[in-house]
Amino acid sequence: MPSALSRVVKSRLFFALVCLGLVLALDVVVFAITNQQNFFKIELSPANTLTGPLMQILYWAPELVILAMGMTLVASCSAGADISVGSVMVLSGAVGIKILGGNNIENFKVEEYAVPLVLAFGAFIAVGALCGVWNGFLVAKLKVQPMVATLILFIGARAAAKVVTGGTILRVEPKSFRWLGNYITDSEGNNIFPVPTQVFVAIVVVAATALVLRFTALGTNIQSVGINAKASKIMGIRSDRTIWLAFVFCGVCAGIAGIIMTSKISSIDSQWGARMIELDAILAVALGGNSLAGGKFSLAGSVVGAITIQALKTGLLTAGVRAEQMPFYQAIVVVIIVIIQSPELRPMASRTLARMRKFSGKKVVKS
Amino acid sequence: MNSDSKNRPQDFRVADLNKGFFGGVFAKFYGNNLLVLITFAMLVLIYSAASFIFRDQNFGSLNSIFSMLHSWPHLVVIAAGMTMVLISGGIDISVGGQCAMYCMMFAYFMQEDGWNVNSYVMIAVVLATGLVFGFAQGVLVAYFKIQPFIVTLAGMFFARGLTAIISEKTIGIKNEDFLGLAAVKFTLPFGGYTDGGGVYQAPYIYLYAILALLGVVVLYIVMTWTGFGRSVYAVGGSEQSAMLMGLNPKRIVLQVFVIQGLMTAFGSFLFCLSLPGGAVEKAVAFEMNAIAAAVIGGALLTGGVGNILGSLAGTLIQLTILKIITSVGTLSSGWGPISTAAMMAFFIAMQSVLTSGRRKRK
């Protein structure tokens, strides 16, 4: 059945899964050589946690998966990307912890909560949403290119976080703050459940997004706006409101990712926190088979893409690449993917091929 | 990116003022330059207000104006290049990463106990690297039709990562030729001030600041009075029309990116002269400053409109505000980027309002 096969091969998810397979294969080799470790081995550690390379990827990937959700929608409807997500994560963390600590911040430590934890987490998300509203306003109402519009917060939000925290690292002492980004513990500090909580947070966010997009017209609207904003407007879709909504959603995702990031290390570092995560998120969307030029999207693809990135990073870190050097390799991967996705590639390749055939004296076959 | 050609702002010509000789002169000046005029007015306003508020710090003297140029000579050059890229309808956010990379190249390869490369050879190598970097980005943007933002975002991460691969240490430059070049300065016989001790402080300007200004002037001449410059405006205004006119937009965009790569390398060289050393975290958030300078200077993000000299005014406004922040003394360093971001937001909003008003009238 060639038609069914070609349909599978051409689908977005296939591209994403092939990439994931390649990266996992790389990881298997890397782990076997450097650590003499079986990449797929998962075991229960004495501390009642599941450990192993795969769990390591699952431990770090959720933030990226959540960011990729927001980024997918933004890329789909605005044909751009929100490059402010990392800075927004840091800003939401800074404001959230400042609110959580209230007057109880001493020596840059929060010893006791000034407000209930839920309220502080609400503040994280509210800050993210506000940043999204601002980005969306610039893009949807003032018609600024998405990436230039979000460049403002890319720089501004991190600087604002620096001002909020006073340029220091704020720590949160109480253990319950760590639950959302780590394992849930009982009063004696023993792990209750062997899987990190953020995995479930990511699953909830992905499921909620997928359900909303599936059972409302929003998903279709976003794709329609991305394919042709003017035609959608004539059809009766409020293009600017749809784009605005996508940016607000992206901001909310950044806020949730900010919760997980600060909870994981129970502190906020405005200088180094979530550094260069923007490219990871964009890369996740692209690796998921989604076009960065807007239009149709696949959430499943983005999830696979995000896990692929994390697997790649884990592999590179194990192979001895330092965190500061990582962007170099990521950039190369991005460039390769966008070249593959480029609509110019196929005609260019066929032209070159035709020229080569002509050169070798053979007859040019028209396809 | 250029699909929306109907919404493209054309120019800022006012028909009624366009008649007669003086009308012609007015139109020539006013034509595409309304935003530039606003910027220059703002620069004068902010600077005089600052010199009034900080009277005791000799804000008004030439020394103080030169010291702004001495602190960030690279912004002057790179903002001019950025304006050219914006006029062509593209954008380049890799400049900060590139700047860190070139500075690290200077610092690492000129170490005495390392490669110990001759400083002049190193300058040539860095400029050549800039050309290659610009060429690679230009090919991806022009011939593969990838959004310039994605390409240069990748370029930014590529350059920062490569900086860390060269070295993660903070390395100072001790090469004597290089430091000698950095120390060349010219003292002016006028425009100084008398300090508290009654000693006359003559203003001086370093060679690298002059080179930076020279770079801007050369680019201005190229963009205003050569065929290439006019083609860049044409391609940025409407790629389709430019193609129908017989221009080759792909080649022009490629040339723009190559020149921008060269300008970035040149600017980084000047930066390295003003602050000899290399570090991974050098020039962080610098792309923002460069784009803001171009935008404040009147370049439209939609392409086709802009003025190289405007970027100089945009640069000086930013430097003035940074100087004000340091003059106040009690503000956190985070306020620098915040003020730049706020200013950029303001000017982008103003551009949008101006161009949408034009859209409605048509």
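qc> The longest strand of chain A covers residues 169-172.
qc> done
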